[in-house]
């Protein structure tokens, strides 16, 4: 029974996170992650350190140009690169926000676990599993706890 509840929580969280990211069609997002034609968002000179330090939100003012035809649509997976086109990481594009990319994974993280590279579903599953394990190691839930945060966004990331 506990395994079924855990699986239901994972499914709920996955769809909740995707709804926050305003991804309307999950299956389309999954197909995009498998596509070889991923657009590149190139940052302006001097803007890369902020993201290497852990900031996940890329302001449109930090972007020099976007390379890719057709141009990315909201919800598309994009590569984030510095001015020399050296990869910094990957994220989800948003054409309707001042934050045009939500950085999902840094290059160093991809090197450590390449199974999640450009794969939103796998990355979310891995991070949710890690969050559940962390809560269990802290003794949550317990008789003394009536509520706790199951997922804490950047707070659950190793470099936070």
UniProtKB/TrEMBL annotation:
Q: For this chain's UniProt record, which GO biological process terms are given?
A: rRNA processing
- Signal peptide positions are 1-25
The identity of this protein, by name, is: PUA domain-containing protein
The cellular location(s) given in this protein's UniProt record come to: Cytoplasm
The answer, when asked if Cell membrane is one of the entry's keywords, is: no
Q: Name one Pfam family in it.
A: PUA_3
User: Domain PUA spans what residues?
Assistant: 39-133
Task: Write the record's keywords in alphabetical order, separated by commas.
Answer: Cytoplasm, Methyltransferase, RNA-binding, rRNA processing, S-adenosyl-L-methionine, Signal, Transferase
Which SMART domains does its entry note? PUA
Query: Is S-adenosyl-L-methionine tagged as a keyword?
Result: yes
Output the Gene Ontology terms for molecular function.
RNA binding
């Amino acid at each position: 029974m506990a395994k079924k509840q855990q699986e239901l929580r994972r499914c709920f969280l996955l769809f909740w996170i995707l709804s926050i990211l305003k991804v309307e069609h999950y299956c389309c997002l999954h197909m995009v992650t498998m596509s070889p034609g991923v657009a590149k968002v190139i940052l302006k000179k001097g803007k890369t350190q902020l993201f290497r330090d852990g900031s996940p939100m890329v302001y449109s003012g930090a972007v020099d140009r976007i390379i890719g035809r057709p141009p990315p649509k909201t919800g598309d997976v994009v590569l984030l690169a510095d001015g020399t086109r050296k990869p910094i990481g990957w994220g989800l594009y948003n054409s309707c926000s001042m934050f045009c990319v939500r950085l999902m994974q840094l290059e160093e993280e991809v090197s450590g676990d390449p199974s999640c590279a450009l794969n939103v579903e796998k990355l979310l599953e891995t991070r949710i599993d890690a969050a559940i394990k962390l809560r269990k190691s802290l003794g949550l839930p317990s008789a003394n706890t009536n509520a706790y945060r199951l997922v804490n966004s950047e707070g659950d990331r190793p470099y936070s």
